[in-house]
Request: fold
Amino acid sequence: MICRQIPVIKIRTSGAFLRDPLYNMLQLRKVKVSAKMKYVLSPEEIKEKSVDELNEILRDLFSFDYFREQKENNIRVTEPFRADGLNRVLYKCPHCLSEGKMIGKGTKLSCGGCGKTWEMTETGTLQAKDGKNIFTHIPDWYAWEREQVRKEIEAGTYILDIPVRIGMMVDSKSIYFVGDGRLVHNAEGFRLTGCGGKLDYQQSPVASYSLYSDYYWYEIGDMICIGDASALYYCFPKKGGDIAAKTRLAAEELYKINR
Ligand SMILES: [Zn+2]
Reply:
């Protein structure tokens, strides 16, 4: 909701993602971080515009591609660990289509299924070792993964079903670890059961457009968070696996289909 009495100001950082991308295990790179402030809309302009026009302006403001900016501005990330954990984002091999077998280590991303290997360059692009590039721009690979998830949903084959450790947030003081359970995500949405039968929470696909899932959350592990105003459930996969990105993509595509 926009209050029409005050202006809209945007402050955007540049370089923060390149300095500390979440997939990279909280390892810092030597990249300068800066911020720019922009006066976007005056109170008068807000009054004149429709809600759709305002939403369009806000949508454009929040659209960005840090990898493209890195390449265009030739920002070099020379650290030898820059591809560590990249498999969290690029979890599916576009060559053999296997999932969960990607390994991001050092400056390389490789597939444990077919052996295809990519070098992550200092400017954030990918170069296939065999010279046969599929995606050189990481967001293009990610967009392809979204299409693949969408196809699974439409074919009725999409499912996540994993054992998890469960942390609950019911106040502003702490996350309380309450036990183990099972997290299922499919066309019906999420269902979390556990704690010796005491917990059974379901969440519709239209409850939220996006999903709060994160990599290496507070150094505990990759995490998927669901819940409502009364409780949030932080689910940590017990067997690991690169499920945070795929589940988020699936949640977004399920929302779009069901709306
Ligand atoms: Zn492969």
Q: What stands out?
A: The chain has three domains: 8-72, 86-154, 158-258. The radius of gyration is 20 Å.
